[in-house]
Amino acid sequence: MSQKRGNAMEVAIICLESADMRDKVLKGVGALAKLGFCLMHDKSLLDFADATSEVRSLMRILAWLSNIQTIYSLLNKEQCGVRDLIFLVRVVGEGVFKAADNVAFLGRKVHENTPFFQRFSYASCLGLFWAHLAAVALALFDIRYDRLFSSRRKQFINLFLCTCDLLTAAAGAAVFGFELNFIWFSLLTLISSFLGCVDGVRSAAIVARRRGASRSRD
User: What are the tens digits of pLDDT across the range 58-73?
Assistant: First the structure.
């Protein structure tokens, strides 16, 4: 029992070490609070959801630097295929989202939410939309060309997750006038967060097992 508890603790630590995992947890908690607001009409839940969104924006400060490194690596590859180009669109869109969100967040804290900084907020939504559109394209590409049929279930789950993200991003940027009501937006966000967290926990469990095997050999 103590070994299982230790393994669970190690998995939890690995998850918390990941900025992406922390972001997914906060995203899910915020979405759950919004759904709670829809049921109970308690404004404190909505305030809590807004607070989680602000924390996520704070965590994204300078996070776009990693996107620049990835873009540099992709552009310096000797051979680039279709998948690399789609992935490049995803990374660029994600970088625009993070950088514009940084400016919008700092603008809200320093100069309040002026029209100038609202434009950066909209630019971040557009960047996120293009990133998720590319993510859906990548998921479809992998399903079409990946010969490892054993991973089909995981690929379709990933496609569903990416589609949820794309729909919420399209609604956030009002692409072609697309809208989602508050409940659907929150529900899709919660589903995406849950699936992302499950995948993150599984990956962390694999890392924990490898570390345990390495320690036992030593």
Answer: 999 999 999 999 999 9
189 near 168, Cβ under 8 Å?
Answer: yes
Q: What is the CA radius of gyration of the chain?
A: 19
Question: At what angle are helices 19-40 and 43-59 packed, to 10 degrees?
Answer: 160
Q: What is the pTM of this model?
A: 0.91
Residue 27 tokens, joined: 């995203």
Classify residue 176 by its DSSP letter: G
* Of 187, 189, 169, 186, residue with least CA distance to 178: 169
Give the residue among 132, 158, 131, 129 at the shortest CA–CA distance from 143. Answer: 158
Question: Which run of H or of E encompasses 1?
Answer: none
Q: Under 8 Å CB-to-CB from 112, ≥6 apart: which residues?
A: none
HEC string of 111-142?
Answer: HCCCHHHHHHHHHHHHHHHHHHHHHHHHHHHH
Pair 175, 125: CB distance under 8 Å: no
Residue-wise pLDDT tens digits, 84-102: 999 999 999 999 999 999 9
Nearby residues of 186 by Cβ (< 8 Å), 6 or more positions away: 31, 34, 35, 38
Q: How many CB atoms lie within 10 A of CB 192?
A: 24
Hey, how many other C-beta atoms are within 10 angstroms of the C-beta on 78?
4
**DSSP state letter for 79:** -
User: What residue type is 130 in one-letter code?
Assistant: W
Give the chain's residues under pLDDT 50: 1
